[in-house]
Design brief:
Length: 153
Amino acid sequence: MKKIISVSQASTPIDIALLIARVGIGALMLTHGLPKMAMLFSGQPLQFPPMMGMSAAMSLSLTVFAEVICSVLLLTGLVTRLAAIPLIITMLVALILVHAADPVAKQEPALHYLLVYVVLLFAGSGKYSLDYLLGGKRIATGNTRKTDAAFAV
């Protein structure tokens, strides 16, 4: 019972939570990105809105990059923080430009994705990732946790 209500920040449960978040959100976003990638390479006229002065093809290409390539990077835990940035931008564009006039219920999926991507931007990929295996090993001293020099103070 004590473990359930504990507020300690043991590293293993946090690393498992980050793994679940990365893999879950990466796989879910692929369900949005893969159909867009198929549309991009289909050779058919694009049915995608041009954004911020870009053509529909450029806008779709950037969206496919974020939703497919960056999602695969999240799944593997490779350059997780960098991969989260295009995904955050894509979700902000979806919220602010595409779904701005829609009710909150229509905006909610983009908000959910955005929140998880922001968490991953700040928290990093955790111990169960390629980032960790390739050299971002945790340095633990006392209660301090350092997963990456990028956000170390």
